[in-house]
């Protein structure tokens, strides 16, 4: 595909995202799902684009970090305060996230934030270090190794410049015009939740598994997660079998948004199994239980 076509297509998508923002702000707060629909559409279109390799770095790490922090600060105002239990869960997520992030190639200020919404089955990252995971996604996790693999996937999107490539593409088109960066900061969270190009998703899966294993976790954490996703995909996306457990309507919409913005769970599972075979990791099956190690005492968390 010609680059000019790609640029035009990207602007169309950005237009969709900004229209989504405009629309979501005009809609009453009781209908947040409709805005998601537009952004999912943008995600679908985006995945059809050729990936544009960024062979040069236009933004410094400092600029990338500053953009990420600015976005994170704005988004922090959009979520409710965590309950003490959720704060304990976030500490646990942060501990596991820091364990894997420590071994990433790029030394950035990685942060891990729980989005307190049981209907949110997704995880995503922003340029420069912020990683988010929905409570609905955490509800599905059965082991710490599964959590480590999911967080490592998100860290690798940052580590391999997937997040900043979007920013760079915009900045490059406008010669780092600050107005464009300003506009970028207005993009709703959903845009970043929408996933990446298929190649980048597979790269984040692959590198995420290596990162999790380097950090002492089992690659079967990824296998178990993708097997569960494959089952949920059968139940809720293609209706090949009836659901074992009832998810709420909002959770199903969130799950289907996740499936639309990522490669098929069966393909992700196949890649994970291939890596395990190639690396002879078949004996690394043991996984740690998913366990929040903090307890509430007098409304405070103690270990
Ligand atoms: Zn991803």
Can you describe this structure?
By secondary structure, the protein is mainly alpha-helical. The protein has one domain (56-302). The protein contains 13 helices and five strands. The strands form two sheets. Strands 1-3-2 form a three-stranded mixed β-sheet, with helices on both faces. A two-stranded antiparallel ribbon has the order 4-5. A hairpin with a 4-residue loop joins strand 2 and strand 3 (130-134). The protein starts with a helix and ends with a strand. Mean pLDDT is 79; it is low at 5-12 and 18-55. The structure holds zinc ion. The site of zinc ion has 6 residues, from helix 6 and helix 10.
Sum up the structure in keywords.
binds zinc ion; three-stranded mixed β-sheet; 60% helix; 303 residues; two-stranded antiparallel sheet
Quantity of strands, as a count:
5
Helices, by number, come to 13
- Small molecules in complex: zinc ion
* N-to-C series of helices and strands: HHHHEEEHHHHHHHHHEE
User: How much strand?
Assistant: 5-15%
Structural class: mainly alpha
- What does the main sheet amount to? 3 strands, mixed
